[in-house]
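Hello, quick one for you while I still have it in my head. I'm working through a protein record and want to make sense of it properly. Would you mind checking whether the tokens look sensible for this chain? I owe you a coffee for this, so here goes:
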Amino acid sequence: MADALHLYDELVTRYKEYAVLSSVTGVLHWDMQVMMSPKGAERRANQMALLSGIMHDRLTAPRIGELVERLSVSPNGLSDAQQANLREIGRDYRLATKVPKELVEEMSRQQSVSHEVWAKAREVGDFPMFAPHLEKLVALSKQKAEYLGYVDTPYDAMLDLYEPGGTTAFFTTLFDQVKAANVPLVKRIVDSPVKADRRFLSNEYDPELQKQFGRDVMKQLGFDAKGGRLDTSIHPFCSGAKGDIRITTRYNPRAPQQALFGIIHETGHALYEQEVSAEHLDTPLSEALSMGMHESQSRMWENLVGRGKPFWTYFYPRLQSYFPQQTEGVSMEQFVLAINHVERSLVRVEADEMTYDLHIILRFEIERDLFAGKVSVSDLPRVWNRKIEEYLGLTPKNDGKEGVMQDVHWCEAYFGYFPSYSLGNFAAAQFWGAMRRELPQLDQKMERGEFGDILAWLREKVHLHGRRFGRDELMTRATGKALDTADYVQYLRNKYSELYRLS
């Protein structure tokens, strides 16, 4: 027993070195998107590549493998939590040892360079400027998939990195269920005589006041300002670890909802990171179970909380105090309908709940075909525009902010990440249903600006477990059943039938 505990302590100490280095790369990545001078791209790429190589060395050290093997054979004396850490460190080790260090460094270097090119190309809508860099990232990712291994398609190897056990077939099944329910519902909503008056949202809203209001919302939801910060970037994101969480958004003076819901979304990510186990910090038990589970938190706070009537019963008078002229004559009911307006649109991060999953399905299908060799990088603008036309009846005016280059994910080789957003939607609705059954006074508390019960429930059911349980076990413990789409489909049907007075 004593020997097992001694070996376990050594294993965790070694893993924490890797985790701390990972947090350093996170700060550098944040700096690259928020603070870094334009001429710093090449040097930053070299810094990130070197750190990635060192991290790879730490995680793939033979001693890590020896410790995992010895403890796996004889775990006597280890607690359930320690055995879970052992299992997950073993998974990380096996995945890392499959990929050569040279490929890890080259991938990191190419990601840093590609990000800078993407930002410039996106601004002017010049896809050919970005295409050669994207081709390199796709090629490197396919190499990585071959090293990782897969059963049916290289894309499965990418999906598994973000959603362990997630496959093309798994996501296809979920997406087919949602499409079957939501496509006809979107049509009924769009055809409904109830229309939201959104003209007040195009008034001039001072970005500095938007930021101040956003910070007020963050604080009320439970964000620890002493353990995090809010900044501005091209694409909203959350990075960092407990004690130093950094989130960003972007401000549009004539569309304040974009920054606000970006802030609420990223605050959901931040709350997950701020509420993880301090006891197991820098081990798998203080890390999110998956990107889908991370997205379940951000999507829940953004949509199920932040777009609801109880939330705005408390916050709308406060918004009016910040922007009295812009919201003059607009009732809370009008405001809530406006921020839940359903409209076929081109930009994913600005899409409403009802059409959002179509944006994800589009990206999922493109990535699937890209890794299957059915489309090439040069085909992407054409394929993208065709699918947007097919699913949403719209055509981008450019390949930049409206089109194929609108998202940051591909320039960072996050292939397989997009489906996590929709999985997060499904899990969020399932958590929300269980939470409301256990907390029947939830609406009344939100109307008073009390959100602590939500955070406490999520802390107990999700945050504190980290990667201790698999997805379906975690969902079953929290909600009574494995992940499915039923709660999500029902939530959307109930909410939008009421808002748009559907029979």
About this structure: The chain has 20 helices and three strands. The beta strands are 228-232, 238-241, 244-249. The mean pLDDT is 95.
